Amino acid sequence: MAAPGATWRAYRGPAACCLCVLVLAASAHAADAPSPVVIKDAKDAVQGAPDVTRVQLGLTSDHRLRTAVTLSVGWVARNLLATSGPPGSVCLRLWTETKPGAAPPDYLVCATAHQDGETMRGSVFKTQPGQPLQRRAGATVGRTSDRTVTLRFSQTVVGRPKTIRFAAEATKPGCARVSCVDTAPDAPKTATFRLRGSS
Fold first, then answer.
1. Residue 130, domain extent
2. What is the pLDDT of residue 47?
3. What span, in angstroms and rounded, lies between the C-alpha atoms of 195 and 164?
4. In this structure, is residue 168 part of a structural domain?
5. Domain count, the chain
6. Contacting residues for 97 by C-beta, under 8 A, at least 6 apart
7. In CATH, what number is assigned to the domain containing residue 106?
8. How confident is the model over 60-110, as pLDDT tens digits?
9. Could you report the per-residue pLDDT of 124-179, keeping only the tens digit for each?
10. Per-residue pLDDT, 64
11. Residue 27 belongs to some domain of the structure
């Protein structure tokens, strides 16, 4: 079997050596990066709530966290607006310090609609029991299909945790009842994404 870097034998000099080092370093980093965690959920929403069928959490090439949340049907930003009551949202619940079931999520990362109904806003909120949500930072919103929204955000803003327990939620506009929220996986279940080892 050819030795590592054998394809570079035809090249000589410092430039070739530096290029080899960069390629090997990039390969090592890719091998160390945690694989994204994907959860699929059945079409099970009730009372007209948006139906979450898939959620993924992983890292981008620039080390930000990235989630992708997919609903069962196509939707646009305007569908999150409410004529009265709370607006609709698509969010990721994150437990970074507390335990799911024993406490609400430590953070919410949400996509909501601007009032023009044409664009969306991404936000990272810190939760405190009995307190209003505190917006800590923005999140970059994207769309990969008419059913899927992505949110990218810094690890630092959620405390650079080693492990994240998470679930996605989608909330029906104008409705504050529990039945108007769909989660994936189904509550109280969560999924686990490990960014770093315990050492």
1. 37-194
2. 63
3. 8
4. yes
5. 1
6. 106, 159, 161
7. 2.60.40.1190
8. 999 999 999 999 999 999 999 999 999 999 999 999 999 998 889 999 999
9. 999 988 889 999 999 999 999 999 999 999 999 999 999 999 999 999 999 988 88
10. 98
11. no
Query: Across the strands, what pairs with 45?
Result: none
Task: Name the nearest CA neighbour of 150 among 22, 64, 40.
Answer: 64
As a residue count, the chain comes to: 199
Q: What is the DSSP string of 40-58?
A: E--S---TT---EEEEEEE
Do 109 and 124 form a contact (C-beta atoms < 8 A)? yes
| Dihedral pair phi/psi, residue 187, rounded to 5° | -60, 145
Residue 2 has pLDDT above 80, yes or no: no
Residue 116 identity (one-letter amino acid): D
* Residues contacting 125, CB < 8 A, separation 6+: 107, 108, 109, 110, 133, 134, 135, 136
Q: Is residue 53 part of a domain?
A: yes
* Residue 183 lies inside a defined structural domain of this protein: yes
